[in-house]
Amino acid sequence: MKNFIPDSVSKFDNVYDVLKERGFIEQVTDEEAVRELLGKEKIKFYIGFDPTADCLHIGHFMQVIILMYMQKYGHTPVVLLGGGTGMVGDPSGRQDMRQMMTVNTIDDNCAAFKKLFDQFLDFDDEWKYEGNNGVYAPGHQNREPLPGKAISINNADWLRPLNYVEFVREVGTHFNVNNMLRADCYKQRIGDGLTFFELNYMLMQAYDFTVMARDFGLKMQFGGNDQWSNILAGKDLSRKWCGVDVEGMVFALLTNSEGKKMGKTQKGALWLSPERTSPYEFYQYWRNVGDADVNKCLRFLTFLPMEEVNRLSALEGAEINKAKEVLAYEVTKLVHGEEEARKAQEGARAAFGGGGDAANIPTTEMAAADFDGDGKGLVSLIKELGLVPSNGEGFRTIEQGGLSVNGEKVTNPKMNVTADLFKDGELLIQKGKKKFHKVVIK
């Protein structure tokens, strides 16, 4: 059993109260019924993940943490991989239609997702869903999942074999288009041109919920609060089409104090894979969050008891940096392991002059010949290292006094980096107050 969550995380025994205490819950279909259900029974519930990339990012991780809490308290997480819904793409919160992916890409991404889920959840991999061949041929599970284990399923199993005419006759007749267009998941797209292709997404997600409720006793669907309309559609369809009552619950998205989604970096999303976002960069992101965001991040992304969360986030002035160090260490430990978290912390402390191991600062090896003669343009170098996204941004950074080399501020945007600038074969570049990168010549 993966023991990420200590028993001391909460004084409550009902997972509903634990999630509420930490501020996750935004909306529930029936609060009293759901709290009673989660307190009295060990249920199957699901969260869906469309395979829009070959890696999970921090936005997904919020939902993974919910799965982990539910498993900790004895429930059965159903991880739904969107091999079917991913062929259309969720329009929620979008200003444009999602890029269409090939079936092979979708399947490869689903496989990559499952490997990442294996890091955080205990799965019963012998459990299987069998036999669904369309709306008139319900499927079934091969057996009940082992108690307390998660199960994984792919909605390609029932969405890809569908006969479209059968689907719109059996499912489409239960949807009122006027009501659909009032849903938040479509509002933003209507102004920009909602396609009929995207309009199908709500039907597909509602059908997912209904199929699993009908075929193996699923009781609830969870998701981010942008999924509320889709969850309500599934609850409604389950009742109308199959006579099954299910419930739904949605959670806060990870946003900063200004309401903007967290997890965006200069290089793009904050990925959970060390190949996409290094443990050091991952650590630094959380070390540098705004003071006003410390409490929320500690509540959502760590398993520290609420007393400790409140104590740390109440620190003021320079002391709040201690809370940010704890946050960064705890989240990095959870995603990348204790050793990588320690190395990232040591590297950050060394870079900021607070002691620690300078060997853990992000480092790039380059050929000594690159810096012979006139050397290499500094702006080109920092772009190559990923410190800036473009040459223009590099020039602006220098002109605004935001770049230092070996501790000295750079004033000439056309400066070249030559071999004589390296000290013992190393060059330390600092962008702003918090980004460091070491170049080593070989």
From TrEMBL:
<dbReference type="Pfam" id="PF22421">
    <property type="entry name" value="SYY_C-terminal"/>
</dbReference>
<dbReference type="InterPro" id="IPR002942">
    <property type="entry name" value="S4_RNA-bd"/>
</dbReference>
<dbReference type="GO" id="GO:0005524">
    <property type="term" value="F:ATP binding"/>
</dbReference>
<feature type="binding site">
    <location>
        <position position="46"/>
    </location>
    <ligand>
        <name>L-tyrosine</name>
    </ligand>
</feature>
<dbReference type="InterPro" id="IPR002307">
    <property type="entry name" value="Tyr-tRNA-ligase"/>
</dbReference>
<dbReference type="Pfam" id="PF00579">
    <property type="entry name" value="tRNA-synt_1b"/>
</dbReference>
<comment type="subunit">
    <text>Homodimer.</text>
</comment>
<keyword id="KW-0547">Nucleotide-binding</keyword>
<keyword id="KW-0067">ATP-binding</keyword>
<keyword id="KW-0694">RNA-binding</keyword>
<keyword id="KW-0030">Aminoacyl-tRNA synthetase</keyword>
<keyword id="KW-0648">Protein biosynthesis</keyword>
<dbReference type="GO" id="GO:0003723">
    <property type="term" value="F:RNA binding"/>
</dbReference>
<dbReference type="GO" id="GO:0004831">
    <property type="term" value="F:tyrosine-tRNA ligase activity"/>
</dbReference>
<dbReference type="InterPro" id="IPR024088">
    <property type="entry name" value="Tyr-tRNA-ligase_bac-type"/>
</dbReference>
<dbReference type="InterPro" id="IPR024107">
    <property type="entry name" value="Tyr-tRNA-ligase_bac_1"/>
</dbReference>
<feature type="short sequence motif" description="'KMSKS' region">
    <location>
        <begin position="261"/>
        <end position="265"/>
    </location>
</feature>
<feature type="binding site">
    <location>
        <position position="264"/>
    </location>
    <ligand>
        <name>ATP</name>
    </ligand>
</feature>
<feature type="domain" description="RNA-binding S4">
    <location>
        <begin position="376"/>
        <end position="442"/>
    </location>
</feature>
<dbReference type="GO" id="GO:0006437">
    <property type="term" value="P:tyrosyl-tRNA aminoacylation"/>
</dbReference>
<dbReference type="InterPro" id="IPR036986">
    <property type="entry name" value="S4_RNA-bd_sf"/>
</dbReference>
<dbReference type="InterPro" id="IPR001412">
    <property type="entry name" value="aa-tRNA-synth_I_CS"/>
</dbReference>
<comment type="function">
    <text>Catalyzes the attachment of tyrosine to tRNA(Tyr) in a two-step reaction: tyrosine is first activated by ATP to form Tyr-AMP and then transferred to the acceptor end of tRNA(Tyr).</text>
</comment>
<dbReference type="InterPro" id="IPR014729">
    <property type="entry name" value="Rossmann-like_a/b/a_fold"/>
</dbReference>
<dbReference type="InterPro" id="IPR054608">
    <property type="entry name" value="SYY-like_C"/>
</dbReference>
<protein>
    <recommendedName>
        <fullName>Tyrosine--tRNA ligase</fullName>
        <ecNumber>6.1.1.1</ecNumber>
    </recommendedName>
</protein>
<dbReference type="InterPro" id="IPR002305">
    <property type="entry name" value="aa-tRNA-synth_Ic"/>
</dbReference>
<keyword id="KW-0963">Cytoplasm</keyword>
<dbReference type="GO" id="GO:0005829">
    <property type="term" value="C:cytosol"/>
</dbReference>
<comment type="similarity">
    <text>Belongs to the class-I aminoacyl-tRNA synthetase family. TyrS type 1 subfamily.</text>
</comment>
<keyword id="KW-0436">Ligase</keyword>
<feature type="binding site">
    <location>
        <position position="201"/>
    </location>
    <ligand>
        <name>L-tyrosine</name>
    </ligand>
</feature>
<feature type="binding site">
    <location>
        <position position="205"/>
    </location>
    <ligand>
        <name>L-tyrosine</name>
    </ligand>
</feature>
